Amino acid sequence: MTGKTKENNNENYLNYVKTQDPPTQHFKNCLSAFGVGGLICCIGQFIRFMLEYAGLTGDELAGTTSVILIFIGCFLTGLGVYDRIGRHAGAGSIVPITGFANSVTSPAIEFKTEGWIYGMAAKMFTVAGAIIVFGVFSGVLVGLVYFFI
Predict the structure, then answer these.
(1) 106 CB neighbour count, 10 Å cutoff
(2) How far is the first Cα of the chain from the last one, in angstroms, to the nearest whole number?
(3) How far apart are CA 14 and CA 78, in angstroms?
């Protein structure tokens, strides 16, 4: 096959794909991501207000709010609800802490049939593993800087 024929085939294929692929609705996607992400954050703020009203303050308040949001994200992932939210909201469901919980829980559920060690435990961090490693590494570096200053 000559270079000209191969290039022509690539152009034909790209033209075919453009005719079959529906146009992306950027404004609608951004609006739904903003709305759902904002709603998740409003729910988190409501939880924080309720815990503050119950008497928690400072680090206890922040930590408990985060744990509750992570639990809700994992629970909704286990029920299959968070995946439906993600299909509708896109990045709006990924950015809050509930999206991180989803990225750890989904592979664990998917690979649980392969066993506890080689399935669930090994695959649980395939998506979020790099984020966890970066977070721990950054925390150690910041800790060392504060220690030596």
Answers:
(1) 21
(2) 65
(3) 39
Which H or E element spans position 70? Answer: helix 58-79
**What gap in Å lies between CA 31 and CA 85, rounded to an integer?**
14
- Whole-structure pTM value: 0.71
C-alpha span between 37 and 29 (Å, rounded): 12
Q: How far apart, in whole angstroms, are the C-alpha atoms of residue 6 and residue 74?
A: 48
Do 95 and 85 touch, CB atoms closer than 8 A?
Answer: no
Q: For residues 69 and 44, is the Cβ–Cβ distance under 8 A?
A: yes
- Distance (Å, rounded) from C-alpha 69 to C-alpha 23? 35
Cα 35 to Cα 43: distance, rounded to the nearest angstrom: 12
- Structure confidence by residue, pLDDT tens digits, 9-46: 778 888 887 788 777 788 988 999 999 999 999 999 99
Give Dmax (Cα) for the chain: 75
3-state secondary structure of 90: coil
In one letter, which amino acid is 18?
K
Can you read off the two tokens belonging to residue 80?
Answer: 């299959």
Give the angle 100-102-104 at the CA atoms, nearest 5°. Answer: 75
Q: Which residue has the tokens 């800790």?
A: 143
